[in-house]
Structures are given as structure tokens and as C-alpha cells.
User: Fold this.
Amino acid sequence: MSSIGTGYDLSVTTFSPDGRVFQIEYAAKAVDNSGTVVGIKCKDGIVIGVEKLIASKMMLPGSNRRIHSVHRHSGMGVAGLAADGRQIVARAKSEAHNYESTYGEPIPIKELAERVASYVHLCTLYWWLRPFGSGVILGGYDRDGPQLYMVEPSGVSYRYFGAAIGKGRQAAKTEIEKLKLSDMTCRQGVIEVAKIIYGVHDEAKDKTFELEMSWVCDESNRQHQKVPEALLEEAKAAAKAALEEMDAD
Amino acid sequence: MDRDATADVNAPHSMGTTIIGVTYNGGVILGADSRTSTGLYVANRASDKITQLTDNVYICRSGSAADSQIVSDYVRYFLHQHTIQLGQPATVKVAANLVRLLSYNNKNMLQTGIIVGGWDKYEGGKIYGIPLGGTILEQPFAIGGSGSSYLYGFFDQAWKEGMTKDEAEQLVVKAVSLAIARDGASGGVVRTVTINNEGVTRNFYPGDQLPLWHEEVEAHNSLLDILNASSPEPMST
Assistant:
């Protein structure tokens, strides 16, 4: 869907005759062209995985992280313009910190998602600001259980069982729908997410990628952290094996 | 502490007070006396020191009446907004923290000790004590006000974990009445508020129905009543 909004797309404060704000749609394109980010909600927590496309062979593995901790109990995977994503994360961290300072308890994930969405939306209201060129998948575990939210550049935020943004999102969503998430633990979920990301990565079109994953679940003591080394390797191995099985057909 | 024998009616209203909050198996009970004094004059002998913040959170106020009222008004307002934002009732912990922030940040100007008590679906019944400087302390029971000095030893002996609702209520009423007996700045009636998953219940214990403690004498009718008495004997016992 590439329609050009000639004339009505110069400013984020301009509507087109058919009621669209083109600048926001263009911002979403920046997200669509980035590496895939996948998030799922398992019965005991959240798993987030990122297909981190490597721009240069000289980059150290583990650098340019795309998943960030927002608070002890929550984290975000960002897609789209990296610098924009960093701003969103910074704002989320700030909101979480201020909430806890004022109310004396960790910020409920629903509240955090609303505040982040509100902030992203703010930047679509004024001509002297541009919209964020990044979307985030926010996962956290609070006293109401594990929750997964996605915030798009337009400022909309919904709660999901499974979400994907970026290049391979269509294929990823199809794969997620096949999973029985309510029966799955995060340990199993990590393997599945790895398989999905390896599956949607387009060898022909894209450069190599690094798999980055994090979780927040009962096993991690409800803290958001990188998936442990051992489990990550196990997941990568399982994903590569699954790919080969497919290729062998 | 030399005060004029005459009442200084222009002195700020203060609640000498005895306030108590206890947790029991399933909720909390807040209790208080009802005396508000202006110097030596009792400005209100039946005041209600247990104030509502939300459907599920109440506070006991002590110290300056004005200060504690303004703090509770602000916190009620903030909690209302918070409830709307969150989409569900505020927790007792949040209410207590809001009280604490006001007490701590304005410690130079305020003189009020507050006990926050309530019930929420995550933690059940909880009591938080927030004394003068703005410390916040979560406790199984809390006592405050001038009358509480006489209750520390009593609670050390009488407090038990996991009491029933009736046991806890009896404990609170007994404690307030003991404090009223010894503390001049506490008196009047005993009011209690019980908060649990079923809701909120208020109780009232008139001062003349409270038990008598050591050296307290029974109330008797005013000797002035003989002026209207039909009996010819002016001074029957």
C-alpha cells in the first residue's frame, strides 16, 4: 500500500481529504522497514525477541541493543529508528521512576503503556515536532500478572497475547497464531520465538542478523532480564534445526 | 506547661486524641476518641476523627485539626484522580504514600500524626502509621495521639496476630477507653470503623457505656436535679 499524499503530507498537522495524516503513516513505514520484533505472553510471563540486522561486520556482538529494561518488572523491544526508540525508552524509564516515587509501588504495566502511548501521541500533535519513527513492544509482569502491549508511532496502544512489528511481522503473526500460548511456559516460549525470528528472516534480501531475546517470568523472579546464555543457545540451535528441516523438504 | 486556668478560645483547635488502627484476619479496624480541644476548652466533644479517603481507605487524624483536615482533603483529591486513571480502586499503600509525601515535604509547617487503614484486593487489610515527621511504617497495628502513650504496654500484652473481627473490635474499644481514662486530652465517645472485603461498617460507643477502670467513679445524675425532685428530702443519697 504505497499511496502518496501529494500536498497533504508536508506536515503532521495536516489532514488529507480522506481523513488521513500522512506523516504518521510515513513514520509507520520506518517501523515496517526495520528488523522484526516479536513479543508473546505465555502463561507465566512475557518473551520478547528481536531480529537485529547487523549493519557492519565490525560491530561487536551484543552491542546496539534493541531490547531495554524499563523497570525491574518490565522491558521494551524497539523497532524503527534506533535513536527515536531510545527516547521512548528513556521516557518510559522516567515515568516508571516518577510513579514509584510518588505512589510507593511499581507502576502497573497498563499505566506505563498508557503513559508511553500518550507521549508518542503528543509528538503527532504539533507542527514543530515530528512523529517518532519507531514502535515498541512493551512487556511486563505486575500484580495483575504478565501483560504485553504494543505502541505504534501514531500513539495507539493495545494489549496483546502476541505481537510483531517490522519487516517480517505478517509471517510472524501467522506463526504466533499457531501457538497455544496459554499452555506454554516462558522456557518453551523462548524456543518458539527464536524459531519464528529465524523463520521470518529473509536470507536473500537482508544481511546477517543477531538474535536478541529477553523475558520476564516466574522463572526470572518477575524481573526483566536477558534470556540466560544457555537457554539462548538452546533456542538458536532449535531454530536453526527447524529451518533445516523446512529446507530439506 | 503552665496554661491559663481560663480557656483560651482563640488557641488553635487540636485533637489531643487517642487513635488506633489494628489488622485482623480479613481486614482492619480503626478506632478513635472524640475530643477536640481549644486550649483547655473542649470545642467538640463528639467529633469524628476517622475520615474517609476512598470507598476502601480511611484515616485516623491526630494533632492539629486544621492540618490533618487539609492533608486528608488533598489526598482524597489525588486518590480520586488516581482511581480514574488506573480504572480500579486505589490500594492502601498508595493512599499511605500520598499522605506521607505531604507530611514529609511540609514537615516544617504541619503538625499531624495520621494512621491510614483500609482493604484492597491485592494485600488485604493493611495499617500504615505516619507520625509527625513523615515516616511511613506498615504495621500490624498502630497507635497515635497523646493518649497512645498510655497504650504501649497494653498492646504489648494484649495484641495477638490473626484475631477475629469481634476480638479486634473489643480490643480497640477497650484500648481507647483506657486511654480516655488517663489522658485529659482524650475523651467523649469511641468511634470505630471496620473495613474488609465486604465493605465498611461504622460503630459508636457512648462514653457513659464504656467500662470503668481503676479509681473511676460511676456517673450519677447532677445534684441540680433535686430542684425538680418531688421528694421532700433535699439530699437523699
